[in-house]
Design brief:
The protein is an alpha+beta fold and about 475 residues long. Helices cover about 40% and strands about 25% of the residues. Helix 1 runs antiparallel to helix 2 and helix 4 crosses helix 6. The longest helix has about 35 residues.
Length: about 475
């Protein structure tokens, strides 16, 4: 099961410790009310009683989820509406969408309020109740530092309350009937229908898109209007074309099969598996082997178990290219002869990096890097980790891309991938060193063209990206 879903279930399980006693108390109170009502010869409103139970359980669970389960933290807030939706659209993974949808679902039970209080039958009063209830929770989270004040939560919680209200009122209209009940039922049902249709349309649009989204695409405009930009070259105004390439996503079944084959070839067994959206971790704690697999573009990273770490009786920089390429073949990693090779110092260790920049292989192309992490133990060099970000891509189509000038204008306007990080340098002089086309994986397993922009800020180097299509 997905780790985020397990986390949600564990949260609900712990929350039940608070909900169950609250419901038991309510049931006891309702039993007393039932007995008193019967003694007075009146009918007991079971529907209203059930609504009260639902509201009590909802209140206790909501207080636990939003205020009691977290630890004290700094006061955080978000005043950008639909930020969570933009992040969910960019990444388009189960976890980020559940963060949005669960905030809607959390307030759906509040929709039974009209069964308890008649004022809530009016849509605008129910809307106000949902908004005020959510606002109270958000303010308490901010004051108690038990969460983040988020206008997105205000929106999704209010939508959830109106979703529940529409369902309850439509069902009640069907049960009561009376004059014009069909018209009233349709009017009430229009609210949940509009919510469901709006959310469904997002997923339909994504499914119909030929390519995916960039997970790191900007979610807001960076405030960098006072940066003094100084290009060290004259950017071209000519629009270009570039190819989109397909790698293809791995399904969960394909990922598990890959991990099983990988483990069998290494003579180990992965006894634990952790699923995190597009990332899966396979673990053998007995041997110390960890395989991190990225379903989005089929890349992986492998930390080699302590008893099988390859060793070399030489300095890290003396471990030759051919030696490493031959060793990598044992992990089913093919290094094309045309790939470049270099050593990169990393503290007391070295990275040995193979880099393939669109190297043809029949109708396909090698693209990306393979990095071997080399550690030192006395006079011995150890191969501790392999990061395989080299993929085999198939050409998809030729697309038009914006010019260098357009790409830099997007950067200057604050629409780059990491522009919000540049806000710290808003009054600085930033030199634009280069602007070159590169490929980046999207959420559907395609590699799309982006402009890779190298910046120099004093003695610091910074890499940013702008979508090219």
């Amino acid at each position: 099961m997905h780790e985020f879903l397990q986390h949600i279930l564990r949260t609900l399980e712990v929350g039940a410790i608070f909900v169950v006693p609250a419901v038991v108390i309510c049931i006891a109170a309702l039993a007393v009310a039932f007995i008193v009502t019967k003694k007075r010869g009146r009918s007991f409103d079971w529907l209203r009683a059930a609504a009260i139970l639902i509201l009590c359980g909802w209140f206790v669970l909501t207080v636990y989820v939003t205020l009691l389960r977290g630890e004290n933290m700094s006061s955080y807030y978000n005043f950008q509406l639909f930020l969570a939706w933009q992040e969910a659209w960019n990444q388009f993974t189960l976890q980020v969408w559940l963060n949005v949808l669960l905030n809607i679902a959390l307030f759906v039970p509040l929709g039974v309020l009209p069964l308890v209080f008649r004022y809530a039958e009016k849509w605008y009063l129910m809307l106000a109740t949902g908004f005020v209830s959510s606002l109270a929770i958000e303010l308490l989270q901010l004051v108690t530092r038990r969460g983040m004040f988020d206008v997105d939560d205000l929106f999704t919680n209010t939508v959830g309350a109106m979703l529940g209200w529409g369902i309850v009122m439509a069902i009640r209209a069907i049960i009561r009937r009376g004059d014009g009940w069909k018209r009233r039922c349709l009017a009430f049902a229009a609210v949940p229908a509009a919510v469901i249709l709006s959310i469904s349309s997002i997923f339909v649009v994504y499914a119909l898109k030929p390519y995916g989204n960039f997970p790191d695409a900007p979610t807001r405009t960076a405030q960098i209007s006072r940066v003094d930009w100084r290009p060290s070259f004259t950017p071209s105004d000519t629009a270009e074309t570039a190819r989109v390439y397909k790698v293809g996503r791995l399904s969960q079944a394909e990922s598990d099969e890959f991990a099983a084959d990988f483990a069998a070839k290494q003579g180990i067994e992965f006894t634990e598996t952790y699923y995190y959206d597009d990332f899966i971790m396979y673990v053998s704690r007995l041997t110390g082997d960890f395989l991190d697999l990225y379903q989005q573009n089929r890349t992986w990273s492998y930390r080699i178990g302590r008893d099988r770490v390859p060793t070399f009786d030489c300095e890290p920089t003396e471990v030759g290219r051919d030696t490493l390429a031959s060793l990598l073949a044992g992990y089913d990693v093919v290094i094309p002869p045309e790939a470049t090779f270099e050593y990169e110092p990393l503290g007391s260790m070295y990275n040995a990096i193979f880099d393939a920049a669109l190297i043809p292989s029949g109708d396909d192309y090698y693209y990306g890097t393979v990095t071997c992490r080399l550690g030192v133990d006395g006079d011995t060099t150890l191969l501790q980790e392999i990061s395989n970000s080299m993929v085999i891509m198939s050409p998809s189509e030729e697309v038009s891309v914006c010019s260098q000038s357009d790409a830099l204008e997007r950067l200057y306007a604050g629409h780059s991938f990491y522009g919000t990080r540049l806000e710290y340098y808003d009054r600085y002089i930033i030199e634009v060193v280069s602007c070159e086309l590169e490929l980046m994986a999207d959420t559907k397993g395609y590699y799309q063209p982006v402009w890779r922009i190298e910046l120099s800020i004093g003695n610091e180097q910074f890499i940013d990206f702008v979508p090219a299509r």
